[in-house]
Sequence to fold (300 residues):
Amino acid sequence: MRYFRLIRWPNLVLTLITQFVFYWHVSIPVFAEAGIQQNLHWFSFLILLLGTLGTMAGGYILNDLKDQLTDSINRGTDIIIGKSISRRSAWSLYILTLFVSLLTCAYFMLQGMYYTGLVIVSSLIALYVYSRKLKGTPILGNLLIAGLSSLVIIILWLSESPWRSGEPSLVRIKHIFMSFGLFAFLSTLIREIVKDMEDLEGDHKSNISTIATVWGISNSIRVALVVSIILLFSIVFTSAVEWARFSLFGKSYAVILTMFLIAIMVQISRSTESRDFAKISRVLKIFMAAGLFFVIFWNV
Fold:
Protein backbone atom coordinates (compact mmCIF):
# COMPACT_ATOMS: atom_id res chain seq x y z
CA MET A 1 0.00 0.00 0.00
CA ARG A 2 2.89 2.37 0.71
CA TYR A 3 4.01 2.17 -2.92
CA PHE A 4 0.51 3.09 -4.08
CA ARG A 5 0.61 6.12 -1.76
CA LEU A 6 3.98 7.11 -3.21
CA ILE A 7 2.62 7.24 -6.77
CA ARG A 8 -0.63 8.98 -5.65
CA TRP A 9 -2.91 6.19 -6.79
CA PRO A 10 -6.16 8.22 -6.47
CA ASN A 11 -4.78 10.77 -8.93
CA LEU A 12 -3.75 8.00 -11.32
CA VAL A 13 -7.21 6.42 -11.12
CA LEU A 14 -8.82 9.80 -11.81
CA THR A 15 -6.54 10.30 -14.83
CA LEU A 16 -7.35 6.81 -16.13
CA ILE A 17 -11.09 7.43 -15.84
CA THR A 18 -10.78 10.90 -17.41
CA GLN A 19 -8.93 9.67 -20.49
CA PHE A 20 -11.30 6.73 -20.84
CA VAL A 21 -14.39 8.97 -20.65
CA PHE A 22 -13.05 11.40 -23.25
CA TYR A 23 -11.97 8.57 -25.54
CA TRP A 24 -15.23 6.64 -25.22
CA HIS A 25 -17.67 9.56 -25.13
CA VAL A 26 -15.96 11.98 -27.53
CA SER A 27 -13.34 10.43 -29.81
CA ILE A 28 -15.04 7.15 -30.75
CA PRO A 29 -18.52 8.60 -31.57
CA VAL A 30 -17.21 11.58 -33.55
CA PHE A 31 -14.79 9.58 -35.70
CA ALA A 32 -17.35 6.81 -36.22
CA GLU A 33 -20.03 9.28 -37.35
CA ALA A 34 -17.55 10.99 -39.68
CA GLY A 35 -16.52 7.66 -41.14
CA ILE A 36 -12.85 8.40 -40.44
CA GLN A 37 -10.48 5.76 -39.13
CA GLN A 38 -8.91 6.58 -35.78
CA ASN A 39 -5.18 6.51 -35.26
CA LEU A 40 -5.81 5.77 -31.62
CA HIS A 41 -7.46 2.36 -31.80
CA TRP A 42 -8.11 0.37 -28.63
CA PHE A 43 -4.65 -1.15 -28.27
CA SER A 44 -2.93 2.19 -28.91
CA PHE A 45 -5.27 3.83 -26.40
CA LEU A 46 -4.26 1.29 -23.74
CA ILE A 47 -0.60 1.99 -24.52
CA LEU A 48 -1.33 5.72 -24.16
CA LEU A 49 -2.92 5.09 -20.77
CA LEU A 50 0.16 3.16 -19.70
CA GLY A 51 2.46 5.96 -20.87
CA THR A 52 0.38 8.65 -19.17
CA LEU A 53 0.18 6.81 -15.86
CA GLY A 54 3.87 5.87 -15.95
CA THR A 55 4.89 9.46 -16.60
CA MET A 56 2.67 10.78 -13.82
CA ALA A 57 3.82 8.16 -11.31
CA GLY A 58 7.45 8.96 -12.07
CA GLY A 59 6.78 12.65 -11.59
CA TYR A 60 5.26 12.05 -8.16
CA ILE A 61 8.22 9.92 -7.10
CA LEU A 62 10.73 12.55 -8.26
CA ASN A 63 8.78 15.23 -6.42
CA ASP A 64 8.88 13.28 -3.15
CA LEU A 65 12.59 12.52 -3.55
CA LYS A 66 13.31 16.23 -4.02
CA ASP A 67 10.95 17.43 -1.25
CA GLN A 68 11.90 15.06 1.54
CA LEU A 69 12.94 17.85 3.92
CA THR A 70 10.06 20.15 3.05
CA ASP A 71 7.48 17.38 3.39
CA SER A 72 8.84 16.41 6.80
CA ILE A 73 8.07 19.95 7.97
CA ASN A 74 4.73 20.44 6.23
CA ARG A 75 3.33 16.95 6.77
CA GLY A 76 5.15 15.72 9.87
CA THR A 77 4.91 11.97 10.18
CA ASP A 78 2.80 11.64 7.02
CA ILE A 79 5.79 11.10 4.75
CA ILE A 80 6.74 8.01 2.78
CA ILE A 81 10.33 8.19 1.50
CA GLY A 82 12.78 7.75 4.34
CA LYS A 83 10.12 6.27 6.59
CA SER A 84 8.25 3.38 4.95
CA ILE A 85 10.19 3.36 1.65
CA SER A 86 13.95 3.85 1.29
CA ARG A 87 15.40 6.35 -1.17
CA ARG A 88 17.03 3.46 -3.03
CA SER A 89 13.68 1.72 -3.49
CA ALA A 90 12.06 4.99 -4.58
CA TRP A 91 14.76 5.57 -7.20
CA SER A 92 14.35 1.99 -8.45
CA LEU A 93 10.61 2.50 -8.85
CA TYR A 94 11.22 5.78 -10.66
CA ILE A 95 13.58 4.06 -13.12
CA LEU A 96 10.88 1.44 -13.75
CA THR A 97 8.25 4.09 -14.53
CA LEU A 98 10.76 5.89 -16.76
CA PHE A 99 11.45 2.67 -18.66
CA VAL A 100 7.72 2.02 -19.16
CA SER A 101 7.11 5.57 -20.39
CA LEU A 102 10.03 5.43 -22.83
CA LEU A 103 8.75 2.11 -24.19
CA THR A 104 5.35 3.66 -24.89
CA CYS A 105 7.10 6.64 -26.52
CA ALA A 106 9.03 4.26 -28.79
CA TYR A 107 5.78 2.46 -29.70
CA PHE A 108 4.08 5.65 -30.86
CA MET A 109 7.15 6.78 -32.81
CA LEU A 110 7.22 3.44 -34.65
CA GLN A 111 3.50 3.82 -35.37
CA GLY A 112 4.13 7.22 -36.94
CA MET A 113 2.23 9.00 -34.14
CA TYR A 114 5.03 11.46 -33.57
CA TYR A 115 2.99 14.06 -31.66
CA THR A 116 2.04 11.47 -29.05
CA GLY A 117 5.60 10.22 -28.64
CA LEU A 118 6.97 13.75 -28.40
CA VAL A 119 4.41 14.72 -25.74
CA ILE A 120 5.39 11.74 -23.58
CA VAL A 121 9.16 12.29 -23.80
CA SER A 122 8.74 16.06 -23.39
CA SER A 123 6.65 15.47 -20.27
CA LEU A 124 9.34 13.23 -18.82
CA ILE A 125 11.97 15.91 -19.41
CA ALA A 126 9.70 18.67 -18.10
CA LEU A 127 8.98 16.79 -14.86
CA TYR A 128 12.68 16.21 -14.29
CA VAL A 129 13.49 19.87 -14.91
CA TYR A 130 10.61 20.85 -12.63
CA SER A 131 11.87 18.68 -9.76
CA ARG A 132 15.43 20.00 -10.12
CA LYS A 133 14.95 23.65 -11.06
CA LEU A 134 11.48 25.04 -11.66
CA LYS A 135 9.84 23.85 -8.43
CA GLY A 136 11.74 26.65 -6.71
CA THR A 137 10.76 29.21 -9.37
CA PRO A 138 7.58 31.15 -8.60
CA ILE A 139 4.81 30.90 -11.20
CA LEU A 140 6.92 29.11 -13.84
CA GLY A 141 6.77 25.83 -11.96
CA ASN A 142 3.02 26.25 -11.41
CA LEU A 143 2.47 26.99 -15.10
CA LEU A 144 4.46 23.92 -16.11
CA ILE A 145 2.43 21.56 -13.92
CA ALA A 146 -0.82 23.16 -15.13
CA GLY A 147 0.29 22.71 -18.73
CA LEU A 148 1.14 19.05 -18.17
CA SER A 149 -2.28 18.51 -16.58
CA SER A 150 -4.00 19.91 -19.65
CA LEU A 151 -2.00 17.53 -21.85
CA VAL A 152 -3.74 14.58 -20.18
CA ILE A 153 -6.76 15.57 -22.27
CA ILE A 154 -5.18 17.30 -25.26
CA ILE A 155 -2.89 14.34 -25.99
CA LEU A 156 -5.98 12.40 -27.06
CA TRP A 157 -6.54 14.96 -29.81
CA LEU A 158 -2.87 15.16 -30.75
CA SER A 159 -2.92 11.40 -31.20
CA GLU A 160 -5.57 11.74 -33.90
CA SER A 161 -3.47 13.72 -36.40
CA PRO A 162 -4.42 17.34 -35.69
CA TRP A 163 -3.61 18.35 -39.28
CA ARG A 164 -6.98 16.78 -40.16
CA SER A 165 -8.76 19.30 -37.93
CA GLY A 166 -9.85 21.30 -40.99
CA GLU A 167 -12.42 18.63 -41.83
CA PRO A 168 -15.86 19.94 -40.75
CA SER A 169 -16.72 16.76 -38.88
CA LEU A 170 -13.64 17.15 -36.66
CA VAL A 171 -13.92 20.84 -35.82
CA ARG A 172 -16.24 20.14 -32.91
CA ILE A 173 -14.03 17.46 -31.36
CA LYS A 174 -11.13 19.92 -31.42
CA HIS A 175 -13.31 22.52 -29.68
CA ILE A 176 -14.29 20.03 -26.96
CA PHE A 177 -10.73 18.87 -26.25
CA MET A 178 -9.34 22.41 -26.20
CA SER A 179 -12.15 23.67 -23.94
CA PHE A 180 -11.60 20.96 -21.36
CA GLY A 181 -7.84 21.26 -21.74
CA LEU A 182 -8.18 24.94 -20.79
CA PHE A 183 -10.34 23.95 -17.81
CA ALA A 184 -7.69 21.47 -16.65
CA PHE A 185 -4.94 24.08 -17.06
CA LEU A 186 -6.68 26.85 -15.12
CA SER A 187 -8.10 24.66 -12.33
CA THR A 188 -4.70 23.00 -11.82
CA LEU A 189 -2.98 26.40 -11.73
CA ILE A 190 -5.36 27.56 -9.00
CA ARG A 191 -4.71 24.41 -6.99
CA GLU A 192 -0.94 24.75 -7.39
CA ILE A 193 -1.08 28.29 -6.01
CA VAL A 194 -3.28 27.13 -3.11
CA LYS A 195 -0.84 24.30 -2.35
CA ASP A 196 2.02 26.82 -2.29
CA MET A 197 0.14 28.77 0.36
CA GLU A 198 -0.55 25.56 2.27
CA ASP A 199 3.17 24.65 2.25
CA LEU A 200 4.43 28.14 3.08
CA GLU A 201 6.14 27.19 6.37
CA GLY A 202 8.06 24.20 5.03
CA ASP A 203 9.04 25.95 1.79
CA HIS A 204 10.27 28.97 3.73
CA LYS A 205 12.42 26.87 6.07
CA SER A 206 13.79 24.89 3.13
CA ASN A 207 14.60 28.10 1.22
CA ILE A 208 12.30 27.14 -1.65
CA SER A 209 11.00 30.10 -3.63
CA THR A 210 7.29 29.85 -4.42
CA ILE A 211 4.65 32.44 -5.12
CA ALA A 212 3.67 32.30 -1.44
CA THR A 213 7.19 32.68 -0.01
CA VAL A 214 8.15 35.45 -2.44
CA TRP A 215 4.90 37.43 -2.75
CA GLY A 216 3.20 36.57 0.53
CA ILE A 217 -0.21 35.11 1.29
CA SER A 218 -2.25 38.21 0.43
CA ASN A 219 -0.77 38.64 -3.05
CA SER A 220 -0.95 34.89 -3.68
CA ILE A 221 -4.64 34.96 -2.84
CA ARG A 222 -5.12 37.79 -5.33
CA VAL A 223 -3.38 35.81 -8.06
CA ALA A 224 -5.46 32.71 -7.29
CA LEU A 225 -8.64 34.80 -7.48
CA VAL A 226 -7.65 36.37 -10.79
CA VAL A 227 -7.06 32.93 -12.30
CA SER A 228 -10.37 31.79 -10.77
CA ILE A 229 -12.20 34.68 -12.43
CA ILE A 230 -10.70 33.71 -15.80
CA LEU A 231 -11.82 30.12 -15.21
CA LEU A 232 -15.28 31.29 -14.17
CA PHE A 233 -15.59 33.37 -17.34
CA SER A 234 -14.49 30.42 -19.50
CA ILE A 235 -17.08 28.12 -17.89
CA VAL A 236 -19.88 30.67 -18.31
CA PHE A 237 -18.88 31.48 -21.91
CA THR A 238 -18.54 27.85 -22.98
CA SER A 239 -21.81 26.90 -21.25
CA ALA A 240 -23.57 29.78 -23.03
CA VAL A 241 -22.26 28.60 -26.41
CA GLU A 242 -23.30 25.00 -25.72
CA TRP A 243 -26.51 25.82 -23.83
CA ALA A 244 -28.92 24.79 -26.59
CA ARG A 245 -27.21 21.39 -26.85
CA PHE A 246 -27.48 20.63 -23.14
CA SER A 247 -30.26 18.57 -21.64
CA LEU A 248 -32.04 19.91 -18.58
CA PHE A 249 -29.66 17.92 -16.39
CA GLY A 250 -26.67 19.26 -18.33
CA LYS A 251 -27.86 22.84 -17.83
CA SER A 252 -28.33 22.20 -14.11
CA TYR A 253 -24.86 20.68 -13.94
CA ALA A 254 -23.36 23.78 -15.58
CA VAL A 255 -25.06 26.06 -13.05
CA ILE A 256 -23.97 23.91 -10.09
CA LEU A 257 -20.39 23.81 -11.38
CA THR A 258 -20.37 27.60 -11.66
CA MET A 259 -21.73 28.04 -8.13
CA PHE A 260 -19.18 25.50 -6.87
CA LEU A 261 -16.33 27.62 -8.25
CA ILE A 262 -17.78 30.82 -6.77
CA ALA A 263 -17.97 29.13 -3.35
CA ILE A 264 -14.31 28.08 -3.67
CA MET A 265 -13.35 31.66 -4.57
CA VAL A 266 -15.10 32.93 -1.43
CA GLN A 267 -13.22 30.41 0.70
CA ILE A 268 -9.88 31.37 -0.86
CA SER A 269 -10.51 35.04 -0.15
CA ARG A 270 -11.26 34.29 3.52
CA SER A 271 -8.41 31.86 4.24
CA THR A 272 -5.27 32.70 6.18
CA GLU A 273 -3.97 29.46 7.73
CA SER A 274 -2.28 26.41 6.25
CA ARG A 275 -5.12 24.14 7.32
CA ASP A 276 -7.59 26.40 5.47
CA PHE A 277 -5.64 26.08 2.23
CA ALA A 278 -5.24 22.31 2.76
CA LYS A 279 -9.02 22.01 2.88
CA ILE A 280 -9.45 24.16 -0.23
CA SER A 281 -6.87 22.04 -2.05
CA ARG A 282 -8.93 18.90 -1.37
CA VAL A 283 -12.13 20.62 -2.46
CA LEU A 284 -10.44 21.83 -5.65
CA LYS A 285 -9.59 18.24 -6.53
CA ILE A 286 -13.28 17.37 -6.32
CA PHE A 287 -14.14 20.44 -8.40
CA MET A 288 -11.59 19.47 -11.06
CA ALA A 289 -13.03 15.96 -11.33
CA ALA A 290 -16.58 17.34 -11.50
CA GLY A 291 -15.56 19.78 -14.22
CA LEU A 292 -13.85 17.17 -16.38
CA PHE A 293 -16.77 14.75 -16.09
CA PHE A 294 -19.05 17.54 -17.33
CA VAL A 295 -18.13 16.28 -20.82
CA ILE A 296 -20.57 13.41 -20.28
CA PHE A 297 -23.44 15.86 -20.68
CA TRP A 298 -22.12 17.38 -23.91
CA ASN A 299 -23.85 16.42 -27.12
CA VAL A 300 -20.91 15.49 -29.31
